[in-house]
Write a structure and sequence with these properties.
This protein is of the alpha/beta class. It contains 12 helices and 24 strands.
Length: 405
């Protein structure tokens, strides 16, 4: 029934689109949906690379059977065990009971742990090659990109890298799967949002993986989410290199919470100071409106960060507190920071923000602004100066020379 799209000699796309799920991992909004990508190699031996979310298992099986046309499925290669990619393992085994599951030691342990499958397993080692006939598959272990079992599979014959979650993006594939056949403009921000929220904590392992993959000649990168990359391989790899080194572009992200508009007015004034210093990339987020995944994306994209919060129950505004925790968990480095706050009878927010930047070990502006009740002339001028200081720090900031490929 299905006519699967061929992406290289003997290699077919058998993934699916999810336009139903509201939130990825029940946290991250999917306004443009998401794809679960899997690939089928039909050679003397046949191999399926990764599976899809079990909610699409029936369609997935139909796609595989349409391509195999009665041939056996010899191997299932598992690059990553998250259930959106491994969820159909038990279902496929029912249709192809003699299929050999290929993975590393940690992968095969997880197959047992998640699905209770323990038979017909082939444990492979880093650098090992599996021959399908004309296609020679070479396995490259890439632990903590972004789970401990993750690996990538390289087709030495067609120079195709099956990269697991690496180089993936949110967004469905609408009619086509190759970047040569798609308008990829919409995927760049979604790739940045995917990286920063899903993979962002693991900069050092990503740098190690990039170094390991550097000698490989790549005609295609086949991720488990988003487009198959051909024309834009250089841009995709460069994005991962920049983000995993926490290298931000020139620009300032201003994040604030506000109940009655006083802290919001301070944020607007700080932004004016940043602009007066000649910065054009200024992104302002109200934490009560902007989704955290979008804010975190922009924190990864830009070098400057200014945070403002009212004091709330002698703490930070709860949404600001939650967001800072997300940033801290991801271990973002190489940022310049400024902060401001407001209070009615007891000041606490600026103290908490100062503690945060000390924890992150970022370069910080000398001035902080803490206003009691409504914004007054002296603090208005101080907000302008805070914006100018962060802008100048950003322009002169040099990244720490760590994690470089």
């Amino acid at each position: 029934m299905f006519k699967n799209q061929q992406i290289a000699k003997d290699i077919y796309y058998v993934g699916v689109n999810d336009r139903q799920k509201h939130k990825f991992e029940n946290m991250i909004p999917l306004p443009n949906g998401v794809s679960y990508n899997a690939y089928l190699i039909v050679d003397e031996k046949t191999a399926l690379v990764d599976t899809v979310d079990i909610s699409f298992g029936d369609i997935f099986i139909d796609k595989i059977q349409s391509q195999l046309q009665g041939k056996p499925l010899d191997y299932l290669i598992i690059n990553h065990m998250e259930p959106d990619h491994s969820g159909s393992i038990r279902l496929i085994r029912k249709y192809y009971p003699d299929m050999v599951i290929v993975g590393n030691n940690k992968t095969l342990s997880m197959v047992d742990g998640y699905y209770g499958v323990t038979d017909n397993m082939l444990e492979i080692k880093d650098g090992q090659i599996l021959s399908l006939g004309s296609h020679k598959l070479e396995f490259h272990f890439t632990p903590m990109v972004h789970w401990p079992e993750t690996m990538m599979t390289y087709d030495k014959t067609e120079k195709v890298l099956f990269s697991g979650d690496a180089f993936g993006a949110f967004g469905t594939l609408d009619g086509a799967v190759m970047d040569t056949d798609l308008n990829v403009d919409k995927y760049w921000d979604e790739m940045a949002r995917y990286y920063s929220n899903i993979v962002g904590k693991y900069g050092n392992p990503i740098q190690k993986a990039l170094k390991k993959l550097t000698p490989l000649e790549l005609n295609l990168i086949c991720s488990t989410h988003g487009p198959v990359w051909k024309e834009h391989i250089t841009e995709v790899v460069d994005m991962y290199d920049q983000f995993s080194r926490y290298h931000g572009k020139d620009g300032v992200v201003i994040i604030y919470g506000s109940m009655y508009g006083n802290t919001e007015l301070m944020a607007e004034t700080v932004a004016q100071g940043v602009a007066e210093a000649g910065v054009k990339n200024i992104i302002i987020h109200n934490v009560s409106k902007s989704d955290p995944s979008v804010i975190i994306r922009d924190v990864f994209k830009y070098k400057g960060l200014i945070v403002g919060s009212p004091t709330y129950s002698n703490e930070l505004y709860p949404e600001v507190e939650s967001l800072l925790r997300k940033i801290e968990i991801r271990g973002v480095k190489n940022r310049v920071f400024g902060c401001f706050g407001s209070f009615t009878w007891a000041s606490a927010a600026v103290k908490r923000l100062t503690t945060f930047v000390e924890t992150m070990k970022w370069q910080s502006a000398e001035i902080t602004v803490d206003e009691k009740q409504g914004l007054k002339t002296d603090k208005y001028e101080a907000c302008l100066e805070l914006g100018r200081q962060v802008a100048e720090l950003m322009k002169n900031h040099v990244d720490e020379p760590e994690h470089c490929v």
